[in-house]
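Possible regression after last week's pipeline update?

I re-ran a chain I had predicted before the update to compare outputs. Posting the input and the new output here so someone can diff against the archived version. Not blocking, just want to make sure nothing changed silently.
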Amino acid sequence: MTCNTAYILTNQAEPYQGLLDKYGKTARFFGTVDALNRALVKDDQCCGLLLDVHMVMRAPAEERNRLFALSRQLPFIRTRTNGSAVEMLDGPVSMEAIGSDRPGRQLDRAKVRLDAQYADFRDPFMTDPQEAVVLDISLGGCFAHLPHGLPKHDYLHLKILEMAVRRPIHCAVRWRRDHAAPGTLTGLGLKFIDISQEQLDEIQQHLLK
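New output (post-update):
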């Protein structure tokens, strides 16, 4: 997939305009790390990031860690503003990577029925797990039916009990299905944020075949 849209974390959009014009890029601007994270969860059209380092470092550690996980496969440039200019700490050549071909969201999905548990994002050790059933899965995420209702928060930990590696997976909620049509179930479309390579290998080798 090729696109030219960069997501920019800054509270000073104007200094970036000349830079974007110079390299033929378009942009969406975000004033907080939390807002940028939400966009990265919901939208697959981002082809690179420009991150104001001061804003990143001032963000809560939890949001900062989510940003690093969500942007793991995206080209990014650390920046800071100096008056009306933007200083690119990783060098201007990095702009060439934004808008180049990159892998899109994993499209291969498999219908499954895997017993699972989930817990609030503030409970990483899953001391109070709730029942879930994973009904389809890909390398990027899954659909989970939650028999006892849907949580309101946007992040959770998911443990798939029928996988060999049962380490909780930190997930973001991409979408909710609160009301199911005939033949479907309510549940959550989840994006994997923090998943081990061993778990990805197991999904690829045993669940997607």
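Follow-up from reviewer: compared with the archived run. Helices lie at 14-23, 33-42, 53-58, 61-70, 197-207. Marking as no regression found.
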